[in-house]
């Protein structure tokens, strides 16, 4: 992911950017299940919620700090050099994960190599199919954040704000979405360790539904749109943390890699389907 993102600064054609972005997201699809499986292996069972809440909080904070840092780098060194800098945090993340993986192997030194298989039968017996049904329904309604930014931009622009100012405000409001997501994911992790993952997930889905209701109205006020973004960020923060925690509780260690892979595939297919359908209808 780090190499592909940094290499975008070397591109001279649009197709090259598209190819590298596809490679980066493919790498992310491989990385995310491994990360979640590793985290579940390292965290004690009574702290799964806090572990995944902290991870989601860090991811959302990165989505707040990253664009602001990128904007500063673009002003300071230019667009292409700023893209090269994107390699640095990715490389540091790879080193950190390698250290964590070594620690996990030390704690599970008795593990023996297993054949590469998806273990669908074992996961079904563990209750994964039943858990995936509400998750799939939620992801089918989880449209890309860019569509929410587009909706906010149009609402602000129609409210007698210039297009440039409306776009800037919408992006700033989206930063609020990620900030609320970080805080609520962290708090939700503590809640998960004291409650059912299904209750936390349902609460997150309800907040997300309220956010969509807000975006469906003709809200031209930045404050009202901030509330809608905050509800969306809070909803996704609770839902994603609950999903990862639920799978950690359902699956034994040797099934978690396959389980988180299936979870990631369900999320990706749902997000792609919902975003494509809403994009066409919009």
UniProtKB/TrEMBL annotation:
Query: What UniProt keywords are attached to this protein's entry?
Result: Membrane, Transmembrane, Transmembrane helix
Q: Which Gene3D superfamilies match?
A: MFS general substrate transporter like domains
Q: Which residues cross the membrane?
A: 6-25, 60-79, 85-105, 126-150, 162-187, 199-217, 223-242
InterPro entries reported for this sequence: MFS, MFS_dom, MFS_trans_sf
Q: Which GO terms of the molecular function aspect are on file?
A: transmembrane transporter activity
Q: Which residues form the Major facilitator superfamily (MFS) profile domain?
A: 1-282
Q: One Pfam family name from the record?
A: MFS_1
**Protein name, per record:** Major facilitator transporter
Task: Please report the organism this UniProt entry assigns to the protein.
Answer: mine drainage metagenome
């Amino acid at each position: 992911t780090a190499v592909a993102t940094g290499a975008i600064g070397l591109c001279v054609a649009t197709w090259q950017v598209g190819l590298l972005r596809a490679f980066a997201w493919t790498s992310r699809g491989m990385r995310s299940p491994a990360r979640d499986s590793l985290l579940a292996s390292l965290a004690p069972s009574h702290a799964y919620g806090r572990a995944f809440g902290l991870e989601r909080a860090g991811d959302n904070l990165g989505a707040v700090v990253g664009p602001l840092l990128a904007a500063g780098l673009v002003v300071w060194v230019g667009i292409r050099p700023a893209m090269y800098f994107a390699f640095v945090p990715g490389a540091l993340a790879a080193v950190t994960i390698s250290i964590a993986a070594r620690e996990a192997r030390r704690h599970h030194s008795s593990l023996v190599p297993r054949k590469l298989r998806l273990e669908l039968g074992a996961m079904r017996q563990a209750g994964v199919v039943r858990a995936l049904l509400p998750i799939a329904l939620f992801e089918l309604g989880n449209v890309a954040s860019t569509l929410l930014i587009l909706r906010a931009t149009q609402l602000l622009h129609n409210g007698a704000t210039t297009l440039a100012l409306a776009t800037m405000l919408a992006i700033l409001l989206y930063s609020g979405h990620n900030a609320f997501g970080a805080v609520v994911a962290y708090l939700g992790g503590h809640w998960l360790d004291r409650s059912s993952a299904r209750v936390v997930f349902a609460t997150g889905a309800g907040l997300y539904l309220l956010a969509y209701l807000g975006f469906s109205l003709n809200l031209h006020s930045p404050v009202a749109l901030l509330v809608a973004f905050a509800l969306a960020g809070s909803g996704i923060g609770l839902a994603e943390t609950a999903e990862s925690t639920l799978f950690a509780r359902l699956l034994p260690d040797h099934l978690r890699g396959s389980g988180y892979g299936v979870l990631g595939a369900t999320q990706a297919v749902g997000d792609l389907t919902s975003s494509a359908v809403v994009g066409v209808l919009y």
